[in-house]
Design goal:
It is a single chain. By secondary structure, this protein is of the alpha/beta class. It folds into 2 domains: 113 residues, Rossmann fold, CATH 3.40.50; 111 residues, Rossmann fold (3-Layer(aba) Sandwich). The protein contains 11 helices and 9 strands. Strand 4, helix 5 and strand 5 form a beta-alpha-beta unit. The chain starts with a helix and ends with a helix.
Length: 269
């Protein structure tokens, strides 16, 4: 009974809305609340199955997939009311889904699957397989994994000499050695200058530190004032931009991320 007002509101809101197209055969319908799972599900689920993705994927500043592709899908802010109106078989979310929201879905009979952030390519492959099986299309998952493997094979550093690099992220922080993007940097032939300087995950790197002890390559992911400071023009460090959309997610995002890193590594060879 505690959800009766919620159900009534959803039914009223649904009046006049177009009919929801259901999934094909035994394949479940899915709502994704996480930009990383959005990107994977857009590749392994059919458009009829993926009823909605997170609102983050419609925003170029927070999307980890092509925004034009993302806008082919309906969007949700992730509220229980919105999801209930879509009536999915499964909700896919990140591991930080609020417990109250998860319990509300459970009470309403909606299955929830959560996924954490992948920190390695192996973690990413595992998530792709699980999402593809969930969508009832494991072959699509294996095909995506093969595409990622091919991109990695094509971009592996051939030169044994590593190049010191700093990935300067939004808010002036750097990634830790365990982050996926750090694994990709090593794959492309970079060695973390920030880690060698004693900085770890999400540590702040000041402009002064950068100028006193510069790396060979500075990857700029963000628009912080310090990242655009004219003092950097006096340094011999090679600077290159790295799109923030490539920083946080695995899955198909690995392909443009590693291709960009390989291109930058080629520039300084």
């Amino acid at each position: 009974m505690r959800y009766f007002p919620l159900l009534a509101a959803v039914l009223l809101a649904a009046c006049g809305q177009p009919d929801i197209v259901r999934g094909e055969g035994d394949r479940p319908t899915i709502v994704s609340l996480n930009p990383c799972t959005d990107a994977v599900l857009a590749e392994v689920a059919s458009p009829q199955q993926l009823l909605a993705i997170s609102h983050y994927s419609h925003n170029p500043k927070s999307s980890s997939m092509d925004v034009e592709q993302a806008r082919q899908f309906a969007v949700t802010g992730g509220t229980v009311e919105e999801v209930l109106a879509l009536d999915p078989d499964v909700v896919v979310a990140g591991s930080f889904l609020p417990p109250a929201t998860r319990h509300a879905f459970a009470d309403l009979g909606i299955r929830v699957k959560t996924f954490s952030i992948a920190s390695t390519v192996e973690d990413s492959d595992d998530q792709i397989r699980k999402l593809a099986v969930l969508a009832g299309n494991p072959a699509a998952g294996e095909a995506l994994i093969a595409q990622i493997a091919e991109a990695l094979a094509q971009t592996e550093a051939k030169d044994e000499k590593t190049v010191s690099a700093v990935l300067w992220q939004p808010s002036g922080i750097v990634p830790g050695e365990g982050a996926l993007v750090s694994h990709l940097m090593r794959h492309a032939g970079f060695v973390s200058h920030s880690a060698a300087s004693g900085l770890g995950q999400a540590d702040y790197l000041s402009l002064e530190q950068m100028l006193v002890d510069p790396p060979e390559v500075l990857l700029l992911a963000g628009q912080e004032r310090s990242q655009q400071h004219p003092a950097l023009d006096q340094s011999d460090t090679h600077r290159a931009t790295f799109d923030t959309s490539l920083l946080y997610c695995a899955g198909p995002t690995i392909i443009p991320a590693i291709e960009r890193l390989a291109a930058i590594r080629s520039e300084v060879s």
